[in-house]
Amino acid sequence: GLMFYGFHVDHSNVVPGLQNLWIYDGFMPHGIAGLVACLSVVVFAFGGIEIIGLTAGESQDPKTTLPKAINAVPVRILLFYVLTIFVL
């Protein structure tokens, strides 16, 4: 519930804008490490989407091949991740 309604904090004195880049210790006050960590996650996520497009472009019949591959993903997740818990 708090995620949807907030913490009931008064936000009337907060003004959005570009001036927030230079006030309150400026842009990246704790260094570039946070930006580098964020970029690695973004590049990894983009790579996943790019692989789908690349696969669709290189397959002979993408209308039948891609749905089969997409529908096989939950089965593989179940096999490789969930069922291996019982083995360990």
UniProtKB/TrEMBL annotation:
The chain crosses the membrane at residues 32-57. It is a multi-pass membrane protein. It is found in: Cell membrane. It comes from the Bacteria. Residues 17-87 form the Amino acid permease/ SLC12A domain. InterPro entries: AA-permease/SLC12A_dom. One of its GO terms (cellular component) is plasma membrane. Keywords: Amino-acid transport, Cell membrane, Membrane, Transmembrane, Transmembrane helix, Transport. GO terms for biological process: amino acid transport; transmembrane transport. The keyword Phosphoprotein does not apply. Signal peptide: none annotated. Its main location: membrane. This is Proline-specific permease ProY. It comes from Acinetobacter baumannii. The lineage of its organism: Bacteria, Pseudomonadati, Pseudomonadota, Gammaproteobacteria, Moraxellales. The gene is proY.
